[in-house]
Every structure is written in C-alpha cells, then in structure tokens.
Amino acid sequence: MFAPLATSKAALGLKDDIALLSARRGHEIVVTTDAIIAGVDFFANDPPDTIAQKALRVNLSDLAAKGAQPLGYLLTLALPKSVGSAWLRAFASGLKRDQQKFGVTLLGGDISSTPGPLCVSITAFGEMPTGRAVLRNGAKPGDLVFVTGTIGDSAGGLAALKAKRREPQLIKRYRVPEPRVAFGRRLRGIARAAIDVSDGLLADLGHIADVSTVHIEIDAARVPLSAALRRAWGSSQATTVRAATAGDDYEIAFTAPRRHSETIFKAAKAARTRVTEIGVVTKGSGVVLMGQAGKPIRVKRAGWQHR
Amino acid sequence: MFAPLATSKAALGLKDDIALLSARRGHEIVVTTDAIIAGVDFFANDPPDTIAQKALRVNLSDLAAKGAQPLGYLLTLALPKSVGSAWLRAFASGLKRDQQKFGVTLLGGDISSTPGPLCVSITAFGEMPTGRAVLRNGAKPGDLVFVTGTIGDSAGGLAALKAKRREPQLIKRYRVPEPRVAFGRRLRGIARAAIDVSDGLLADLGHIADVSTVHIEIDAARVPLSAALRRAWGSSQATTVRAATAGDDYEIAFTAPRRHSETIFKAAKAARTRVTEIGVVTKGSGVVLMGQAGKPIRVKRAGWQHR
Q1: How far is A171 from chain B, CA to nearest CA, in Å?
Q2: In the list A160, A241, A272, B6, which could disulfide-bond B11, CB 3.0-4.6 Å?
C-alpha cells in the first residue's frame, strides 16, 4: 500500500531499513519531526485521508517557516488493532494527493501495533542553501511582525466538531492545514525570524521573543480573522484573544525590517498567500497583545503548553 | 532536561523546530526510524534509562548493519500523564550515557501527551561514503552467511520477565541491545548484503533472500546460542528454532563472498565482536533451517509479523 508512494531512489523502494539522503552542493538538509495522536491532535473517526494530510502538513509547515524546499518524509505509524486495510488505503490516498501537491516522496518508516490510540509520527526533510534557513533567533528591534492567512480557524473547527455544529470551512482548516511552502521559500534573505504557528500566535511569537531577546507588540485589531470565524465566534476582542492563543493554525509568523515590506507583499501576491502586518519588535522581552487606546490586553494563557 | 543532550551545532540548541544536517563531501546521510511502545517492545515499568537506551540502540543497529557512522537523532516522545520529571531525568541520563558511548547527539524532536501507552520514536542519522551502504539486495549464490553475537537472548530475557524468573544476563539483552556499530563499519566493501536482526534471524534473512532473489540455507547446529540461553531453554533443536524465530536480537546477519572470510574474522576480533559462519547462499528463493543429516526443519513462523 505504501511502496507506490516511495518514488525516490533515496527510499530504496522501501526494501531496506534506511533511506539515503544527499543535498546538492552548497545546500544543507533541514529536518523536522512532529507526531499527531488520536484524541489529542485529531479525532479517531476523522476521515483517514485527512489524518494523513494533517500529519504530513504540520511537518511541511515547519519546513515552510524556515524557507526550506520539502524533499521527502519518513512515516511511523502506531496502529490500534481496529485499523483495517480499507482505512490504510484511504490514509495512503491522502498521502499520495499531498505528495503530488507538495512535491515530496515517502522515504521509509516503521509500522507497529499499539494497544493505545492511533499515532502518526512524521520526520520531514527539506533542502536549503547552506546557512540561509530563517531561524527564530534573528528578530531585531525595529522589525515589523507579519502573519500569513487567518488565525483561529482551526480552533473554530475543533470547537464546532466538539459541539457537533456544521462549520465545514473551519472544520477543514482543523483537519487539513495549509502549509505555506511556496511563500516560505520567498522569505529567505527577507525575514529575520520566523516560526510556524502551532502552539498559538502569541505563544509562538513568544518563542521568537525569547530566543531573539526582544519584545514583540501585537495590535489586536490587526490579527487577521476569517469571516467564517467571525460568524461562529463574533467580532469581539474576546474572539481575537481566543484565536491568538488557540494554536494549530500552521501559518507563518515572522519579523522583517520595514524596508522589506513591499517585497513581502509582492511575494505574498506571487504565492497567492494573504499576509498581514500585525505588530512591531522593540527592545525588551515577552509578547504583548495591544487593545484599543494602546492598552495591553491581559491574556491568561498564551497558547498550548507542552505538557 | 534534554537541551544538554543537544551538543551539536546542527541542533540549534533545540531552540528552533528544525535541525540542519550536512554530509562531508563524498558522503551521504543514512536515515532510519523505529518506534518502541510500552506493552509491545518494553515493559512500562522497565528502568527509564534502559527504555531510552533501547529506543536509541534499535535505531543505531539499523545504521550499523548498513556500515554507517552514527551522527545524531531526533526524539519523539508520547508520554502518558503518569510520567513525571524523575522518570524523565532517568530517561535523559540513559540517552546521555549512550550518546557518549556511540558518539551521537540529540538533534531535536517532539514531546506530547498521550492517553495511551508511552511511545518513544527515534529517527537516527549516520554518514557514509556515497554509494557504499551495505543493502539487503546484494546477496549472491556462493556467498557465506554470518551473524554477530548470539541469537535468542533477548527472547530469553522477555520470557524470564514474563515468568518473573531472575535471568539478569538475558533480561539485560532484552532491555539494552548491543548495536554492532564498530563491526558494521568494517563490513563496507566486504559484505554483499546485511540486515539487523529485529524480526527474527530466519525472517530477516528471508528479507535478504526476497530482495536479493536467492535461497539461503542456515545450519541449525551453527546458530550461536549463549550459555545463559542454553541454561534457561536447554540445548535442544527446539531451542534453536525458538531463538532463530524470536527477534529483537539487534545482531547483524550478512552475506559475503567466501574469499573475505579471513578479513571478516579479523574485523570481528578488532571490533571485539563474536562472528559465526552459519550458512550459505544458493540459487532459488526463501530461507531454510537445516537440521541433522541435511534435513530441513519445519518452522511454523519465521519471526515477527508486521501486522
């Protein structure tokens, strides 16, 4: 079922325990890994193709935020006994579709049984001109802060699924995120720091603030919310706070010098990706969400806590 | 707790979502991934440092069997709520010890909570002169078949743990396998096909027979069994069958032309690794275990079935 997905020579036709990787001259390999677990990151009864797509895409999103060109991935499946071949076929079809969409190929992996919930762990590989990856630690006072797409839709989808409300647009964003691969590549040499929004917009900008040792100020009114989310949650400031602390967005948040603004919006247009300027980087530490009349909004929890 | 393990520049101090890998000129990167799950591959109450070591070592064993020099690894942990910081500290200490022993470093990873059993998934990276990896598909009629170490000890340890029998030597082999890294490297250019014994000696030689399209004949009397296993299971042919179909050995089974025999035993001595010649490769397909007077032994199940 998975062998047809291993189209690269590097995968050795899945006939060995290993894959062989090499980067073109002057390039390095960017590696990232993320696992999703039934009952935590998706629902066990979600369509299997969307589970596969989510597992792959959350990893492609990490590569995109660094400006890397995705190459391939390893797939580790821990399967409960209840999973049969029809489920696996649908799962593989989701991977196949996304392999074509993102130009990646299966390189290998590991399948085992588990008495626990389904777990899909992926390690993804990308290629990058050596030394040009956009890291978290480069933000400088004076930079502007930007974010792709809209924030909070995935959380809106999760809430709708829990409440059994029909919100197909939001649910789709929860199940199948849209990694900003084409746009991310254009941030090489433009963005000073970048991260993909998985823990929550404020939490992830907090990671940038921490390792860049800067302060980040976000204008609540500018945080981009979709029409679908406004319909579901209303247009109040509380919606913005909830959206900016929810996570699972897989958008790219990044900082760049003001002089690159025009280049950034041109790149966004070329990659057909919405980009919004949402704040500024200053001296100091931490992240603050600014409300009306320049008053900071108190936020109880910036985002997802890793345990 | 894990940051001190990330001593390579490639890990970016675990401060980003990615690691950056590059191979030396004329080298490629060998990648492998394997997950171990509580209740399947280890006992939830095993000492945490041995769980960490097993997770790392089963991956290093895959690299060793290909002749690669290990470099580093990604660690994905799915942790039940019951796991606390004392457990994690002990787990990290097991990794630290093995990092020093095998010259590898933590490159990154992902930690999440799970409502299910503890799962440790590792992706390991090694380096290899381009094109020199020892694959599964190179066995040729006329080759001799060899295996490192002894077979069945890990299964003996598992049986002892289940029966609550004290068999420290066998239990240690179950909990902490010994990847043959130093010896594996010496098989470059010598072995024609190699695999690490995880599914079972006969099952894994079956993988070589399949992809090399050859027949492999193993002499049951030559399958190396430890004194500890003979004490626990007796010295009958049934013990050999059970050992050769049990798996989890993490020894290297390989084939090589007869003319390399002397080189192989010299390499074994230099790497302080026991190596035994156990059979031959001929034309045909499949694997057979030969008993006394050249009679094939009927084996019900060659080894671990991947679901």
Answers
A1: 22
A2: B6
